[in-house]
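Q: Please design a sequence for this.
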């Protein structure tokens, strides 16, 4: 089966360990998955349900997450004794849900969501994507994209090709130049020092 990594909130991840594999096998597989540039800068929750993990083992998994620039949020366990270790995991899930759009958005279409949005497709000119959380576009972003619409300036926008008509994060916005060239690599947009920065996602 292998380790399962799925979105709880973008870019947060649920890392469920494989009980059929050894600790070393789980660690090795986790490193292989986290080496993908797509997961860099993410947040993660470790799910060790049905596994006997001691504090030293937990620390090794936490260190592996941090090694690949993934922020550790806490644990999910079926054991009631572990509730205090979940570090507000339920609050995180409630605050930001994930909506997956498995299609290309045409001009005039509009997506609004209270949480994070993952679009598996393109966002064409004059299409709108508005989210209170983060927005990730597994395609080309050419429309109007607004992350952190409720004022969360820590939200990000990621796209395989980022060239929107307008990009907003919280109350900040920017526009792409008219003669923008098609990007050759994925990019991430974020707010720093009261302005939007766009940087290449290292592969």
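A: Design:
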């Amino acid at each position: 089966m292998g380790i399962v990594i799925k979105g709880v909130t973008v870019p947060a991840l649920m890392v469920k360990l494989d009980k059929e594999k050894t600790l070393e096998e789980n660690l090795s597989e986790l490193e292989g998955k986290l080496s993908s540039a797509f997961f860099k800068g993410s947040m993660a929750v470790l799910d060790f349900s049905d596994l006997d993990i001691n504090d030293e083992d937990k620390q090794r998994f936490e260190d592996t997450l941090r090694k690949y620039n993934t922020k550790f949020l806490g644990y999910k366990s079926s054991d009631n004794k572990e509730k205090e270790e979940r570090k507000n995991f339920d609050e995180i899930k409630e605050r930001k849900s994930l909506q997956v759009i498995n299609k290309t958005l045409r001009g005039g279409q509009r997506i609004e969501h209270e949480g994070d949005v993952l679009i598996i497709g393109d966002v064409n000119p004059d299409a709108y994507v508005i989210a209170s959380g983060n927005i990730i576009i597994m395609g080309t972003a050419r429309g109007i994209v607004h992350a952190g619409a409720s004022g969360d300036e820590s939200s990000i926008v990621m796209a395989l090709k980022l060239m929107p008509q307008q990009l907003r994060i919280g109350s900040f916005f920017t526009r792409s130049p008219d003669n923008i060239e098609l990007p050759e690599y994925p990019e991430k947009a974020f707010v720093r020092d009261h302005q939007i920065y766009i940087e290449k996602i290292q592969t």
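Q: Thanks. Anything notable?
A: The longest strand covers residues 135-141. The mean pLDDT is 80.
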